[in-house]
Design goal:
This protein is of the alpha/beta class and 288 residues long. The chain contains ten helices and 14 strands. The relative contact order is 0.14. InterPro entries: LysR_HTH_N (IPR000847), LysR_subst-bd (IPR005119), WH-like_DNA-bd_sf (IPR036388), WH_DNA-bd_sf (IPR036390).
Amino acid sequence: MSFTELKAFDAVARHGSFVKAAQELGRSQPTLTTQVAQLEKAYDTELIIRSRGKIKGLTPLGESLREITRSLVALEQDANNLLRDAGNLNSGEVRIAATAPVMVVRLTKVFKERHPNVDCHLEFGNSERILQSILQCDADFGILGGSVDHTDCVAIPISKPEIVLVGSNDHPATESGVLSRKAFAKETLLIREPGSETRELMLTKIQQYHYAPARLVEIGSRSGAIAAARAGMGLAAVSEHEIEASEGLSIVRLESFRVFGVNHAVFLKNRSQARLLQVLLDCCNYLT
């Protein structure tokens, strides 16, 4: 077994195609096919399910090996960045995942001003999804809300955004910008999907203060909740950091309490000394 064979397998598993994997690695397709076949033959096992020359998926053993090769490829990238550029980050790439598009765009802008030749790849999702991307080495650096209790990760608080309600500019509640318990009981609350820290914070707080909306509508993404609020379907619970001035929305707060979250910068503990991650962490100081 060689690292070349493992890297070939990882690329094929990621793309689901020998052709695309060969293009990424700069090898010929027959060479890549042979390298993966040699890996399987050496251990008399099957890693990739093939049918009529096409990849149908990975075997259970292939899935387990993929978990290992993800980390190997990520660590190789760290080594390349360190040795090739002596810490100057004059080239390479970084994968950033975040719960709030507005925040990660700001982070990318600050980072690119310092290191314009490093390619940035962005991913968005809820807190649960972002943490999984970090753990599976599909992202190098994450920004997510709430507590991060995982022994393999470093989580550093970087901001404390307020969780607010937003509605269309012509929504009656936006005139005063404040809702009493009685008024809230007549409203439709647009809430994110399970796994969203914004959802958990808002639901916990309204239950604590005995606020109950007339209707609760679950919407599977931040952009979907914002769109529904803009269309007049109700009031959406979002982080104040996620609201752009151009979105045609007004903020509404609940009379008896305020809701605050905590955003963390998150990365794998075994990569905490990588210069790339330290630079990104420093860039976070310019987000607030």
